[in-house]
Specification:
The complex is a heterodimer.
Chain A (H helix, E strand, L loop, with lengths): L4 E3 L2 E5 L4 E6 L4 E9 L6 E6 L5 E4 L2 E5 L5 E6 L8 E9 L8 E2 L3 E6 L1
Chain B lengths: L3 E3 L3 E4 L5 E7 L5 E8 L3 E8 L6 E2 L7 E6 L2 E6 L8 E8 L9 E2 L3 E5 L1
Parallel strand pairs in B: 2-11
Antiparallel strand pairs in B: 1-3, 3-8, 4-5, 4-9, 5-6, 7-8, 9-10, 9-11
């Protein structure tokens, strides 16, 4: 199945640093979602975006729906150790089964105290 | 808050056994999904259901079947488990018809087939 291109694959940073990750697709989407997965747990929804250009924050997290509808990014400011985990983007395109999502391969974030 | 629960967190089965993974959601969602997650491969859709007794194949349905007899419950069945079905299995659910079909996930079932 189709997958999104998510980068970077992994990041190792110091506590307090800002983090940025992004996803790109070859086709346009009408929804972008960002999830975080802690080790051994299911993904938890962080931010949902439904409109091109939309910029949404959730605490220290900010995500944007790209104007081209083919990309999205997630920023984390002032990282803390509990930010550790895998971050996934997911998108929903036009046509086909409207309730199916396409997932990125994930960004592994490690934060050193 | 949406709650999606899965019957087991960890499961160990032998090759050839029939395996049932159960998923229940409490938010009256129409859509339910089963994924498997493997290192380096991300989340891959096995089956999904958009209504009771309705099901559609995802990207990797081979070796699996599903059952949706009640709206809140979606079961994944491995008719004859094989070692290559060792994986993390994730269930998700979403509302339908809102234009904002966000999927909410359960905690996952880690299955080991010996």
């Amino acid at each position: 199945g189709q997958q999104l291109n998510q980068s970077p694959q992994s990041m190792f940073i110091q506590e307090g640093e800002d983090v940025s990750m992004n996803c790109t697709s070859s086709s346009i989407f009408n929804t972008w979602l960002w999830y975080k997965q802690d080790p051994g747990e299911g993904p938890v929804l962080l931010i949902a975006l439904y409109k091109a250009g939309e910029l949404t924050s959730n605490g220290r997290l900010t995500a944007q729906f790209g104007i081209t509808r083919k990309d999205s990014f997630l920023n984390i400011s002032a990282s803390i150790p509990s930010d550790v985990g895998i971050y996934f983007c997911a998108g929903r395109g036009y046509g086909g089964a409207t309730n199916k999502l396409i997932f990125g391969t994930g960004t592994l974030l490690a934060v050193q105290p | 808050d949406v709650k999606v629960t899965q019957s087991s967190r960890y499961l160990v089965k032998r090759t050839g056994e029939k395996v049932f993974l159960e998923c229940v959601q409490d938010m009256d969602h129409e859509n339910m999904f089963w994924y498997r997650q493997d290192p380096g491969l991300g989340l891959r859709l096995i089956y999904f259901s958009y209504d009771v007794k309705m099901k559609e194949k995802g990207d990797i349905p081979e070796g699996y079947s599903v059952s949706r007899e009640k709206k809140e419950r979606f079961s994944l069945i491995l008719e004859s488990a094989s070692t290559n079905q060792t994986s993390m299995y994730l269930c998700a659910s979403s509302l339908s018809g809102t234009g904002k079909e966000t999927q909410y996930f359960g905690p996952g079932t880690r299955l080991l087939v010996l």
